[in-house]
Amino acid sequence: MAVVATALTATTKDVSGQRADEEYDGLFPVLISWVRVVLCFILMALTTTIWALVMVVLLPWPYQRIKQGNIYGHVTGRVIMWILGNPIKIEGAEHSKGKAIYICNHASLLDVILVMWLTPTGTVGIAKKEIIFYPLLGQLYVLANHLRIDRSNPKAAIESMNEAAVAVVKNQLSLIIFPEGTRSKTGRLLPFKKGFVHLALQTRRPIVPIVFTGTHRACRKGGLQFSPTPISVRFFPPIRTDSWTSDKVEDYVKLVHDVYLKALPPSQRPLPLPETDASPS
């Protein structure tokens, strides 16, 4: 019964969220959204051109390009969020100052923009190889020497992760990664992959969870319609990994996943599995 009640509560919240979304489905909100999108593309075209020239000059210095990519993200990401007009509440920003593995849930294109803005200088990203096809952003991502992995080739993906770990330690960098491995279609939290734990074991960097709330309502998957709905960003205190051991990878994945289960609202938590009837027929 508890499972049914939880599911009903989550469904009720989803329905109320859908009603809130309908406020932004009229002609006028759609036109405003497209004006904002055009302004964002103009901004990105300008800043990407400027920083692309900087990257070309810095081609012999790959890790300087990473830092310049971060500065580009701080400027572009912040202005984009201002143009889109979403009220943003940021908590725990003091936990974003040190060298760490930053992880965050992924339910919207806006998560990428927020990551660009809020992660510290000296942070290298790890993304799917297809990011190169994202207009403007993807090309600069590659120029900035951030990392791409081929999710269809597990062996190559593992090699890329190992290379990332070596580069992070050698060059005193941080990492940013989406542990779900893909964007949630519904906004609900997905299971975490193990990659971020293996990176922590190799680098001994602490893990800083970043919890995004509301981005899935502000930008729906499969389109470029944005709604000025509230967004919250919460940085959690670093989770130390100095004493972690390779035989407890599953435990560490669950430990960090549970942080998100507790922090996210019911509408963004995974739906409970239905109870099975174990009684004999």
Strand order, main sheet: write it out: 1-7-6-2-5-3-4
Given the structure, what is the number of helices? 9
Helix percent band: 40-55%
Mean pLDDT equals 87
- What is the rounded distance between the termini? 20 Å
What structural class do the secondary elements suggest?
Answer: alpha/beta
Description:
This protein is 49% helix and 12% strand. The chain is an alpha/beta fold. Helix 5 (137-143) links the parallel strand 3 (123-128) and strand 4 (147-149).
In short:
With 281 residues, the protein is α/β, with parallel strands linked by helices.
List keywords for this structure.
alpha/beta, single chain, 9 helices, 281 residues
